[in-house]
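anyone seen this seq b4? input:
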Amino acid sequence: MFTLWNLIEASLLCLNAVCILHEDRFLAKIGWGANANVQGFGEPPTVKTQILNLIRSIRTVVKYPLIFLNIIAIVFKLLLG
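predicted toks r here
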């Protein structure tokens, strides 16, 4: 049965995956490293640049709240199974 807790847990796992993604190790292999998004002045950002900026922003903003949310999820799983 698909519940609200399953949705929250899936989004928590996806946020964990984005936060631990290492740019030099994984993204640079497919050409999405930090040096790949060089643009000229006034050019609109590409989809690739916007995705990389989204990943960096998520990593910056969600890092510490994610630790707290992971602790809550672990305690919830331990108590209720």
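The helical segments are 4-20, 23-27, 47-80. The mean pLDDT is 83. kinda curious what u guys think
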